[in-house]
């Protein structure tokens, strides 16, 4: 009875491992095609999301999509693979090309000698396989293509469970297709392995169109050129109904950290973004602002040069302070400076709650007497502080 | 027990030696490094999390992955730079990364080191005669590095011997414990130029110990 319960518990553990392993593997594959360098810190102790003793920073939207796909079709031995398809899309020719087909499979034939493997061993082995996936994903042609940052090229991914990747979809024309088995882990429930079919020839031909892109997501992707927009889960689900369990998401829709190509930003930002005219104005005097910042450290005698550098196109409600007008009355220590400061402050508009009071006109003699009184009090305050 | 041995060969320009060496050794160490091991009461232990970092090569269009541990990276770089400097006097050399564990041995030897895995990188230096040849060589090196990563992945995912986590007292006999963030398996790096004997490493250390004890 105890051995049956322990084997049932071990079986449940293994199912959980497969589920989280698949989620992490999808994160690794998709993130490696986002065209950027990743760095995650090592931690002295594992936290909630740190499965397999490896820190993989999860993309939230991708995580949601993967969990949804796994919920519909959990990873089990003997089922068809869980697949991630990476495609490149040319905006100029409006075509796409499948570059890679990653598949995570669990075969149904557990070898007898692996039935004695403990959950801990399987956990360690799956962690090792994930590390291999991280390393191998950086060596394939699609990785270099994603880093090339070509203006008319974007990459997208498709995740689907219960599917069979079709090699003939790879590339275009007559692709040179390679198959690589990243690694496999034998467990009592089956052999878990990751493999990839990838195209070495990365060229586009106008005749090839990928039929699996749902129309509404494609439209959203066009809007995404200038800005990053999140694909709503509802649209993803709708597409999954239409395309037989597929979830197609463009990189830009889920990528939060994708760095923008400078030329794309300059072309589209001012056209699509609201109040773009203000940004344009803000951009023009930027060089001047840099000049201004440099000139603020010059001595006051040359501040006339600073005045001439002020750009008249800056909004009038924000006035740059003239250095000459900034004075430090209390620092200079003279009574005249303090008096001038007080008179200037008297001329400012009264606050609304004080408007019922008319400001009192103070004579010069009263001010001098007030200052003398404050000086006397200063000494007593000093004595009090020293006594503390 | 015989150590598993994995040799690689690269034909490179002299300036590419550090990139190739670091790519191979960091790829291997990424698979042979555990999170930081902390022992608790009653012999149980917890394992920390290993972070990773993409590192683009300086002279090659290749990106390798290493553990996020700057101290480990510095140690490996030091060996790679030393090897690259030594290779200025020759066109043929090899550098090895050996994983070993310490075990108690019989008197008069205190501890014996047993190597369980060796990764050797043989480097041949060639000076290309033209830009076309240089580009062709670089493509070849980059393809070889990609094959190397696939080979490492295949090798480490096989069911082979890897030392288990021992008890707290013997942890330093299996893992290198002086890094703050991670615990790689005990390892040593040595290199050899042409027919010369290997520089540093486990074998040299063992010879020293025997000489000290015997004389």
Lay out the secondary structure:
The complex is a heterodimer of chains A (388) and B (215).
Chain A: H1 2-31, H2 60-72, E1 81-90, E2 95-106, H3 119-137, H4 141-147, E3 153-163, E4 177-187, E5 190-199, H5 215-223, H6 233-242, E6 246-250, H7 251-254, H8 262-272, H9 276-283, H10 286-295, H11 303-308, H12 329-332, H13 335-346, H14 364-387
Antiparallel strand pairs in A: 1-2, 1-3, 2-5, 3-6, 4-5
Helix pairs in contact in A: 1-2, 1-3, 8-9
Chain B: E1 4-12, H1 17-31, E2 33-35, E3 37-39, E4 45-47, E5 52-56, E6 63-67, H2 70-86, E7 92-104, E8 111-125, H3 131-156, E9 182-184, E10 187-193, H4 202-214
Helix pairs in contact in B: 1-2, 1-3
Plain-language structure description:
The complex is a heterodimer of chains A (388) and B (215). By secondary structure, chain A is an alpha+beta fold. Chain A has helices spanning 2-31, 60-72, 119-137, 141-147, 215-223, 233-242, 251-254, 262-272, 276-283, 286-295, 303-308, 329-332, 335-346, 364-387, and strands at 81-90, 95-106, 153-163, 177-187, 190-199, 246-250. In chain A, strands 4-5-2-1-3-6 form a 6-stranded antiparallel β-sheet, with helices on both faces. Chain B is of the alpha+beta class and 215 residues long. In chain B, the strands form 4 sheets. A 4-stranded mixed β-sheet of chain B has the order 1-8-7-10. Chain B has a two-stranded antiparallel ribbon with strand order 2-9. In chain B, helix 1 runs antiparallel to helix 2 and helix 1 runs parallel beside helix 3. Chains A and B meet through helix 3, helix 4 and strand 4 of A and helix 1, strand 5, strand 6 and helix 3 of B.
């Amino acid at each position: 009875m105890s051995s049956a319960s322990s084997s049932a518990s071990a079986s449940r553990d293994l199912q959980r491992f497969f589920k989280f392993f698949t989620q992490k593997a999808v994160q690794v594959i998709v993130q490696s095609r986002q065209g950027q360098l990743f760095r995650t810190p090592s931690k002295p102790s594992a936290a909630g999301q740190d499965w397999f003793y490896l820190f993989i920073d999860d993309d939230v939207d991708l995580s949601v999509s993967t969990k949804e796909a796994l919920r519909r079709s959990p990873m089990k031995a003997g089922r068809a693979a869980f697949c991630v398809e990476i495609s490149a899309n040319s905006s100029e020719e409006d075509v796409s090309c499948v570059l890679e087909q990653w598949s995570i499979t669990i075969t149904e034939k557990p070898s007898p000698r692996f039935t004695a493997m403990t959950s801990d061993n399987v956990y360690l082995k799956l962690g090792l396989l994930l590390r291999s996936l991280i390393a191998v994903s950086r060596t394939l042609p699609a990785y270099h293509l994603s880093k090339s940052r070509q203006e008319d090229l974007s990459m997208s991914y498709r995740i689907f469970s219960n599917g069979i990747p079709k090699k003939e979809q790879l590339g275009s024309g007559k692709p040179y297709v390679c198959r690589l088995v990243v690694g496999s882990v034998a467990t009592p429930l089956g052999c878990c392995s990751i493999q990839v079919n990838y195209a070495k020839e990365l060229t586009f031909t106008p005749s090839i169109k990928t039929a699996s892109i749902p129309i509404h997501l494609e439209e959203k992707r066009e809007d995404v050129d200038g800005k990053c927009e999140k694909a709503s889960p509802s649209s993803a689900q709708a597409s999954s109904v239409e395309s037989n369990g597929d979830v197609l998401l463009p990189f830009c829709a889920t990528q939060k950290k994708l760095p923008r190509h400078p030329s794309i930003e300059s072309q589209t930002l001012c056209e699509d973004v609201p109040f773009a005219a203000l940004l344009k104005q803000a951009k023009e005097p930027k060089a001047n602002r840099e000049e201004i910042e440099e000139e603020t450290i010059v001595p006051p005698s040359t501040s006339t040069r600073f005045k001439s550098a002020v750009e008249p196109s800056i909004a009038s409600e924000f006035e740059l302070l003239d250095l000459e007008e900034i004075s430090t009355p209390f620092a200079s220590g003279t009574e005249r400076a303090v008096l001038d400061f007080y008179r200037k402050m008297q001329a400012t508009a009264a606050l609304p709650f004080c408007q019922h009071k008319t400001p009192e006109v103070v004579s010069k003699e009263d001010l001098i007497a007030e200052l003398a009184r404050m000086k006397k009090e200063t000494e007593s305050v000093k004595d009090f502080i020293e006594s503390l | 027990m015989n150590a598993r041995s994995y040799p690689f060969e690269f034909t490179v320009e002299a300036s590419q030696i550090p990139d190739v060496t670091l790519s191979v050794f960091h790829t291997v160490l990424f698979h042979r490094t555990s999170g930081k091991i902390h022992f608790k009461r009653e012999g149980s232990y917890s394992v920390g999390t290993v972070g990773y970092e993409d590192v683009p090569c300086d002279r090659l269009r290749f990106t390798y992955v290493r553990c996020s541990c700057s101290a480990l990276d510095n140690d490996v770089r030091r060996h790679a730079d030393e090897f690259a400097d030594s290779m200025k006097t020759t066109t043929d050399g090899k550098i090895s990364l050996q994983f070993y564990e310490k075990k108690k041995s019989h008197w008069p030897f205190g501890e014996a080191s047993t190597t369980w895995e060796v990764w050797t990188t043989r480097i041949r230096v060639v000076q290309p005669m033209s830009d076309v040849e240089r580009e062709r060589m670089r493509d070849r090196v980059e393809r070889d590095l990609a094959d190397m990563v696939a080979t490492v992945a295949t090798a480490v995912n096989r069911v082979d011997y890897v030392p288990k986590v021992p008890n707290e007292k013997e942890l330093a006999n299996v893992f290198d414990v002086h890094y703050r963030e991670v615990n790689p398996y005990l390892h040593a790096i040595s290199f050899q130029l042409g027919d010369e004997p290997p520089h540093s490493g486990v074998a040299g250390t063992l010879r020293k110990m025997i000489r000290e004890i015997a004389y």
